[in-house]
Amino acid sequence: MPRGRYSLHDPHDHTPLAEEHFHCAPGPSGWRYVSQLTAPSGDHLGSVDLALDELGRPIRLELHTASWQVRGAALDGVTWVRTDPTGAHATEGNVRAHAFTGSSPAFLVATTRLLRLAPSSSATRVRLVAFTDPVLAPRTVDQSWALVGREAHATDNGPLTVDEYQVTALDTGERHTVHIAGDVVLAAPGIELEDLASPPSVFD
């Protein structure tokens, strides 16, 4: 069960935003990721709980910040409920999209589990609902993902396979690169893996 810590920063000016302490693991139904977020000051910022089925679809998502929470799942596309902490102000949403995304590295792994891309295959388009920090406002985004490289690196625990993805935002044409090993993000814009207590999981 991989367990570790990511640092999250603004990808443009590198301002530190948060630390995300996580653990994740494949299970009989798919894959689950749980994390707690803390501000640079040490204050608690929120949490992420994401569970995927064996096909990579989100069967449960729970996001919490200081002021908002979201619960969602894949249902007629994706469906979610966004509420304030008291539950007095709840709004429901539904979009014909494939999955969710957001600032957590969990969503990058989840998208790769959903797409199951092969090296040198053509880019695949995916529609996602992004929840923006800190108010968890939903926004529909279209992206293109391509697996452009796969390399095996020798480690003390055996070979580690690292996949390099090129991700394109279809509304702006902006491209960036994401490196993932198993269910751990090694590098991505705004994300750095600072600590990892055990090797990434190996998926079939």
- Terminal residue distance: 15 Å
Q: What best-fitting shape do the alpha-carbon axes yield?
A: globular
Overall mean pLDDT stands at 94
DSSP strand content: over 45%
Largest sheet, in brief, is: 15 strands, mixed
Quantity of strands, as a count: 15
What share of residues is helical? under 10%
User: Spatial order of the strands in the main sheet?
Assistant: 8-7-6-5-4-3-2-1-15-14-13-12-11-10-9
Enumerate the spans where pLDDT stays under 50 for 5 or more consecutive residues. none
Structural class: mainly beta
SSE succession:
EEEEEEEEEHEEEEEE
Counted by DSSP, the helix tally is 1
Q: Whole-number radius of gyration?
A: 16 Å
Overall domain count? 1
Structural features, described:
With 204 residues, the protein is mainly β. It has one domain (3-198). The protein contains 1 helix and 15 strands. It has a 15-stranded mixed sheet with strand order 8-7-6-5-4-3-2-1-15-14-13-12-11-10-9, covered by helices on one side. The protein starts with a strand and ends in an 8-residue tail after the last strand. The relative contact order is 0.18. The model has no long low-confidence stretch (mean pLDDT 94).
